[in-house]
């Protein structure tokens, strides 16, 4: 399902052969490190923050864009670490999130029908025949740009950009105008005071706080691309997808007898799967058995995306089924996809209040049903976009016209993302 039709199979095979010989983008020990952290999150010992763009574009491989994405995730995790009093695992939805599922194979405008835009890894968004023809050379371009993004991100982190001693490095250009700036600054100051106190007791700098672990993820949608990155590793058993630390399966490709489940059950990476209100118990338990046959901690992540209006009706039965069957899994809440709506003028958007409501309900429902919500999965950006309604600045439909830049789904902007983190902390402290 959801695979493009390439007009020249020989050209595709040639591109895949070249792709399979290129250096991997991640390492097996990084993958294993993430699995260990996800197992800790299952046990309630850490929280997972997964966030980034709905769909990356090749043009987004630019220093400022990458830095801003990293900044917003670091700032959100700082709030969560301070407020939840525990470690946070940071997983970026970038460095490979170039493919997107489509509701139809074609798109028609003014009587002209062309292939659907499936993300920059496949074709271009311009509505022309030349742009919409799937091009296998884009697979190699996606690999190169993913490598550049990862290299720059690693360089920032290893160079001390993520140093908790200097969170002022993470300020975005427009943060001073944020209504939440004062609340955030209080938390920064509190962490700084705590670090100085601990280092006074220790008699020196605590170097563990000068860097953080950071992982990447993307939807494992384009199977030819994922297969070309799937390799064995010396002195380790099994196969690893070395294009990303954490691949996940979307609802459109989660069929038990589908190729995406068949592929993902065979790799050693931790694997996520999106589950919505339409999933039934047999389907869900079948996914648990297929994707985590040895019932290992840290291997399977269930990402529920119900919508604020449906989560109370549907999530409890799923929690009970997984718990009752004894399956090990980490639960994340995706409060974005179930809350998508269109404005009166046809613009796709989401309401911040619905997003926040679904997260709060998810915490409550897991708690009352003997489970634990281990993290959130968000579509967000570090840019000053206006794509989701509401938030601290109470964005309206008219505001969407100012800076709506997404080519696929609406994202939380920096202020809304930080506000969500602050609200999560506030709610959990009251619980």
From TrEMBL:
Stored InterPro entries: Aldolase_TIM, DAHP_synth_2
Q: What is this protein called?
A: Phospho-2-dehydro-3-deoxyheptonate aldolase
Q: Which reaction does it catalyse?
A: D-erythrose 4-phosphate + phosphoenolpyruvate + H2O = 7-phospho-2-dehydro-3-deoxy-D-arabino-heptonate + phosphate
According to its UniProt entry, this protein's organism is: Hydrocarboniphaga effusa AP103
Keyword Transferase listed? The answer is yes
Where phosphoenolpyruvate binds, per the record, is at 93, 274, 305, 337
Under the GO molecular function aspect, what terms does this record hold? Answer: 3-deoxy-7-phosphoheptulonate synthase activity
Q: One biological-process term from Gene Ontology? A: aromatic amino acid family biosynthetic process
């Amino acid at each position: 399902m959801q695979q493009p039709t390439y007009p020249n199979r020989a050209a595709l095979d040639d591109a895949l052969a070249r792709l399979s010989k290129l250096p991997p983008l991640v390492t097996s020990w990084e993958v294993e490190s993430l699995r260990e952290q996800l197992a800790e999150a299952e046990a309630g010992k850490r929280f997972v923050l997964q966030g980034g763009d709905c769909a990356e574009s090749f043009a987004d491989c630019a220093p400022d864009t990458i830095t801003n994405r990293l900044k917003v995730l670091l700032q959100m995790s700082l709030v969560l670490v301070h407020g939840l009093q525990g470690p946070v695992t940071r997983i970026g939805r970038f460095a490979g999130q170039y493919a997107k599922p489509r509701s139809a194979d074609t798109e028609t405008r003014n009587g002209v029908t062309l292939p659907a835009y499936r993300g920059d890894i496949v074709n271009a968004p311009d509505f022309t025949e030349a742009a919409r023809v799937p091009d296998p050379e884009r697979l190699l371009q996606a690999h190169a740009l993913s490598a550049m993004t990862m290299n720059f991100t690693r360089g920032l982190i290893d160079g001390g950009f993520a140093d908790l001693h200097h969170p002022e490095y993470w300020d975005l250009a427009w943060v001073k105008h944020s209504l939440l700036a004062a609340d955030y600054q209080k938390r920064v100051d509190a962490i700084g005071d705590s670090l100085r106190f601990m280092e006074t007791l220790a008699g020196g700098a605590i170097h563990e706080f000068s860097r953080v672990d950071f992982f990447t993820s993307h939807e494992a949608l384009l199977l030819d691309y994922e297969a070309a990155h799937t390799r064995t590793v010396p002195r380790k058993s099994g196969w690893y997808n070395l294009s990303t630390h954490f691949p996940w399966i979307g609802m459109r490709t989660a069929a038990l007898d589908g190729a995406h489940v068949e592929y993902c059950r065979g790799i050693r990476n931790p694997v996520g799967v999106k589950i919505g209100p339409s999933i039934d118990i047999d389907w869900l338990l079948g996914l648990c058995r297929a994707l985590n046959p040895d019932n290992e901690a840290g291997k399977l992540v269930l990402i529920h995306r119900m919508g604020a209006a449906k989560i109370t009706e549907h999530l409890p039965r799923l929690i009970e089924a997984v718990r009752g069957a004894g399956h090990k899994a980490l639960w994340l809440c995706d409060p974005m996809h179930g809350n998508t709506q269109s404005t009166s003028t046809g613009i796709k958007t989401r309401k911040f209040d619905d997003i926040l409501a679904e997260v709060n309900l998810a915490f409550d429902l897991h708690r009352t049903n003997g489970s634990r919500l281990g993290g959130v999965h968000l579509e967000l950006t570090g840019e000053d976009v206006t794509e989701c309604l509401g938030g601290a600045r109470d964005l309206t439909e008219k505001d969407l016209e100012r800076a709506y830049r997404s080519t696929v789904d609406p994202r939380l902007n920096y202020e809304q993302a930080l506000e969500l983190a602050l609200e999560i902390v506030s709610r959990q402290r009251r619980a």
